[in-house]
Design goal:
The chain is of the alpha+beta class and 446 residues long. It has 16 helices and six strands.
């Protein structure tokens, strides 16, 4: 990733990963996968407490409101379930409370996760890769299967790119200026999310407008009067920066309905500050790579690395006119020097030939197929965390109130077999002594 740290990471509850992320990537937002948390909650909590715990996971609010809800949830937990199990569940709840900043929505509302709450997308790709894998596969077959799976994803992506570049979504609301401008910059799937926020803007009203020398603050409230939000606007003419107290744009990259209320009131188009570049139609153009060829060349790799290094420097330089002129002069000077060197040395025409021969100089490595090992059998079906376990049945009579050790049918069979055994022994002795006289038979009384 060209020495660039990720903005956010979603993992399961592994302690080693949590410790490594905290030490190596201290500036990265980390959260736990909600799917794994719900699965553990269904395992450790009583079924009547599960909806309350889910509300603690997904309900947004302040840390103070979370603490009050947590205390009321613990009071409900004390009076639910058996006493022996409550101790075990209490220990799990204590552990979850210690790491509450990694899973509670009240502590993650200002983190950058773009709406993702679980690692389901990576798990779905892993399941597809492992679906047709075989332990007898060669290394070449495994790599070929990997590229076959990726080709399907790339084909779908190319089809969506084609549809997005040759069509414009239809505006359905009465705010044509705002909706049409959003349709021209957002991709269709993200435009529909923005369109929902425009429709939700009708549920809010502007209560008050506070103007200062630097910015203008709009007090936005729901029509039922329960929730109040603050939208700050730096300049109403240029709309250089618009932010809301709900922090939805900072977390998910989609402008919220409270910002839409202000934009509708001003009657303007979608400002650039409310458009995240990764959701736009031209998001791939900034990478500098050829989208028609999925195999990245060495030129594209070097271009991306230089772009990632230069982007933060140029963003800081654009804030000052002096830095802007200095960097502009430096780049023009370097460009002129490069043209002079290429004209003197005559290397410009052979640039591509030299680029293609860079990788040939690498040392050849003989990669062979790995040794075949004994497999562990077919994987078992993973049960859902809300799926009730099957009741244990007796293997003899298939009843659910006992097992084979206490089965009444086995007891009846055993008592019958013992009686029959004694009866057979008695008949054998009597037959032997009466019909086949033996010296010992003289000792038996008649």
């Amino acid at each position: 990733m060209y020495n660039k740290e990720p903005r956010s990471i979603i993992t399961d509850g592994d302690r080693a990963m949590r410790k490594a992320i905290r030490l190596v990537l201290p500036n990265t937002d980390h959260r736990l996968c909600t799917w794994h948390i719900e699965r553990n909650a269904a395992k450790y909590l009583h079924h009547s407490l599960f909806p309350g715990f889910r509300r603690l996971i997904y309900t947004r609010g302040t840390p103070e409101t979370f603490e009050s809800r947590w205390q009321s949830f613990l009071k409900q937990h004390i009076n639910t379930g058996k006493r022996r199990r409550r101790r075990k569940h209490r220990r799990w709840l204590t552990k979850m409370y210690v790491i509450r900043r990694l899973w509670a929505a009240s502590y993650l509302k200002n983190k950058y996760f773009l709406g993702a709450k679980s690692n389901q997308r990576s798990e779905s790709l892993n399941s597809r890769l492992q679906k047709h894998l075989d332990r007898k596969m060669t290394l070449y077959d495994m790599v070929d299967h990997y590229f076959h799976c990726l080709s399907r994803i790339r084909r779908n992506e190319s089809q969506l790119d084609c549809e997005a570049s040759q069509s414009i979504p239809v505006a359905t609301t009465e705010h044509q200026v705002l909706e049409t401008s959003a349709a021209k910059c957002f991709t269709p799937s993200n435009f529909y999310l923005v369109q929902k926020e425009i429709e939700r803007a009708g549920m809010y009203d502007t209560l008050e407008i506070l103007e200062t020398e630097l910015s203008t603050k709009y007090i936005i409230a729901a029509r039922d009067g329960r929730k109040v939000f603050e939208v700050d606007c730096d300049d109403e003419e240029t709309l250089a920066n618009v932010s809301c107290s709900c922090l939805k744009f900072e977390c998910e990259g989609i402008p919220c309905c409270h910002i839409m209320v202000v934009l509708i009131r001003l009657g303007v188009a979608m400002p650039q500050c409310c458009v995240l570049n990764r959701w736009t139609l031209n998001s791939k153009s900034v990478s500098g790579t050829d989208t028609s060829d999925h195999v990245r060349s060495m030129k594209g790799t070097r271009l991306n690395e230089l772009y990632n290094l230069a982007k933060p420097v140029f963003e800081e330089a654009s804030c000052s006119i002096d830095d802007f002129l200095r960097w502009k002069q430096i780049l023009q000077h370097e460009r002129n020097e490069k043209r002079k060197r290429d004209g003197i040395d005559g290397e410009c025409s052979h640039a591509e030939d030299h680029e293609n021969n860079v990788e040939v100089e690498a040392e050849q490595i003989n990669v062979q197929d790995p040794e075949t090992v004994q497999g562990k059998g077919a994987p078992k079906r993973m049960k859902g965390f809300l799926e009730k376990p099957a009741k244990r049945r007796c293997s003899q009579c298939k009843a659910i109130d006992h097992d084979i050790r206490t089965c009444p049918k086995i007891k009846r069979l055993m008592s019958f077999c013992i009686a029959c055994t004694f009866e057979l022994i008695f008949h054998e002795i009597f037959y032997c002594c009466v019909y086949n006289p033996h010296p010992c038979a003289m000792l038996l009384p008649y």
